[in-house]
């Protein structure tokens, strides 16, 4: 009888240890996922937000669809972009569609 109680106590101790090790492994993997996926994505979002907020009239931009243009007006959420040599091709678009910004040379 004493042998059965000792065996049951040992099994209960192993169950607790396996739960703790499982929790530690989950925390470890979530930490790795955070540093490999979530953190770089947040950095990229901050970088893009800074890029979008720096857009001014006269900047040359590249849109997410691959068009190059020059900003002729800026509002809170939108910009009006002039594409090509045709001065009548002015298209309003969201700031989120801006991929790159090149400032004009100040010469």
Q: How would you describe the overall organization of this protein?
A:
This protein has 2 domains: 1-53; 56-102, Roll (SH3 type barrels), CATH 2.30.30. With 107 residues, it is of the alpha+beta class. The longest helix has 52 residues, at 2-53. Helices cover 49% and strands 25% of the residues.
What is the compact description of this entry?
The protein has 107 residues and is an alpha+beta fold.
Q: How much helix, percentage-wise, in residues? A: 40-55%
| Strand residues, percent | 25-35%
Spatial extent as radius of gyration: 29 Å
Structural class: alpha+beta
Distance between the termini: 95 Å
Give a count of the beta strands, DSSP E runs of length 2 or more: 5
Low-confidence stretches: none
Numbering strands along the chain, what is their spatial order in the largest sheet?
4-3-2-1-5
Largest sheet: 5 strands, antiparallel
Number of domains: 2
Could you give the order of the helices and strands? HEEEEE
Please, what is the average pLDDT? 86
Shape descriptor: rod-shaped
Count of individual helical segments: 1
